[in-house]
């Protein structure tokens, strides 16, 4: 959309650089052919930029050797889990080497009594969930992409998901990390305990840094006991304001839902159009609520949350009695993202967050922006965190719509910031939101972030063109 | 104990420096007389080092002016909340100016619907708890010193407390911070939402940095709904191992206790000696458990946790039916720290943490160290986090005991690290553990921490002599 979204010139690797890379890794760990590189040229942002090489390290020593070679020859390195991110964070805009972590996918240790798992960064989220589930445990982050997304990618992006409202995001559920910095140094941060205050918190600094500070190689994850029971409530309200009032009541009492998802009026219509879900006709907004727990505790929490959900503007409260019925209620939510693509060829999917009491202003403001710019906007998502997936829909072949997208997006970001919100609750910055970071983060903090970047990556070889905006010329 | 524990030469301020400081603050905000400075020369570590001045800024602008003056004249600044820390973190070992935040004690905003409070750093923990309680909310950190300790100090030390086992420490309960860096720049980090991934996580970097990276001026805190009900269980076991097995069972099921405190054999005897608490004679270890919740949910959680507490080695499970009875059971726990002082004139109070399953090895290892070094060691504390308060007791007038302290402490730290533990779960490093940081944090990570320190504080004026060890000569 703006100049910095266009990759800088991608120059070919010199013969010396290629020789250096070949010396760093065994031949079956690095490929230079365009045909081999192409699958690593894009991610779920649908941006494309071809790397000159793709590497598949098998262990930390190989990552160190690779980074050292790249440092010596000033080659850009783009770490990549499974490329499920939506912001372009793993697109190699300056070419160089994509470092795919997919072969570093071992579970290194699992201690159920300590609720700890240690794994390599290339494990998928679901690899970890499966290993943990065998001991009645789980890892909190549950992005929609959990079946494919890697743990390293989840951590690098600060991934959340619906469950974050009760159990927190990657930030609150990682205890320690191993990472290779842009200097080629391997560091170990954090500890094996849920409390620890020795030295500065490098773990949280790496969480959400999108591979710009270090290449995460291993993680020690905090696991939680998995409740046996689940209840799903689907609560229909007359309008958005009534639904948000209910969110405030639910979050204001001690029984925490493990998901609290909001659908605006358009999202309700979309879900109902996708398949008749039996949503009452006069529904203007919907909450989809999961409550987890065991036995009598689950019953008590479900009653407490149901009571909090009831109030002015309630149209219907349905409770799913079985897992199958729960999954049925959730199917509409999971179908929303793909359904949107059918409405318009272009979907700009943002994940802004505002304090919960500002959600009505956000949703009404989005309505005003939709009318003003002639673009449909559909919002749904993690209301318990004030974190909405705002989808601006457009047909780029319509010049009026195509021309309106940028202004609408900018106005939406300004609206969010005016409501004390943040531009990204869980997707991160990547390329997409890079030009807007300075709208949220004031110059002194941004200057500190740039200096931290230089500490971790003095040559600027780690994932260039991401996360932080370029310094003003 | 070692050379670095002795303050470097504290030189008097030059006339120009005094003039610079006087120009930065109104006259009733800075004092230079030794009599005025003396109350700010020490903290709960009982170390003493006289500053040349003590400042009482009233707002952020005054903090900025003060830091800029100190930077210009290279004067050390030691930020101070209420001096309740036990590690010497607020003792001005290089003299200079102690910056007492006690006059910056305003609650700036409270939004119950958003579960947010914004306050100045000098508010006490209990100021925040009182304001939050009026809306049925609370802030998770609950150090024993909560009535006096400041929010800024809690954050700077990464404070926890018994409740951390369910609700987390300062790290998980601060959303954003304002801080003045050693450059004199005021930065704002974080956001007003429970999720946010724009830019690097400067908030968590400041949490636990003990005033060495920035002077925290304001905080946005995450509040939680306060459950109305509380049940306390006191569970006696035959021996330490049985008690720790019970901790593992309790932490392995989904109903989370809001406190899970452990007493070793000596701590049990001490509690019983302080006052007859009716602890059965054959008790070798004790758990004190709080469960919070509302109505039927609380009943269900109490049953689940009681069931998990029962098992091999159980001697007695007592349940307090009323708040008064709960407070009675807790009185023994709260009396432990002061009681220890009666046992021996010198008490070295450490707060190491190990993975829960390693607690039996820690406790038996401490027994071996006690015998080997001829020093009594009493341990109790936050077993749900594997975080024990290990108290090495000695009479310094006995040369054998005095001579054994250092070797015993060192051996204890080596034991903790061999068990995958950390040297501090919540007290922090300050002066006391500075020489041991490099035992836990390997050189590459330590080098990064030192470089981060230079980014935030290029002249090294912020709380010198704390947190990070001096670089090797």
TrEMBL record, chains A, B:
InterPro entries: FAD-bd_oxidored_4_C (IPR004113), FAD-bd_PCMH (IPR016166), FAD-bd_PCMH-like_sf (IPR036318), FAD-bd_PCMH_sub2 (IPR016169), FAD-linked_Oxase-like_C (IPR016164), FAD-linked_OxidoTrans_Type4 (IPR051914), Oxid_FAD_bind_N (IPR006094), Vanillyl_alc_oxidase_C-sub2 (IPR016171). Gene3D superfamilies: 3.30.465.10, 3.30.70.2740, Vanillyl-alcohol Oxidase, Chain A, domain 4. Keywords: FAD, Flavoprotein, Oxidoreductase. It comes from the Bacteria. Pfam families: FAD-oxidase_C, FAD_binding_4. Its cofactor is FAD. PANTHER family: GLYCOLATE OXIDASE SUBUNIT GLCD. This is D-lactate dehydrogenase. It comes from Panacagrimonas perspica.
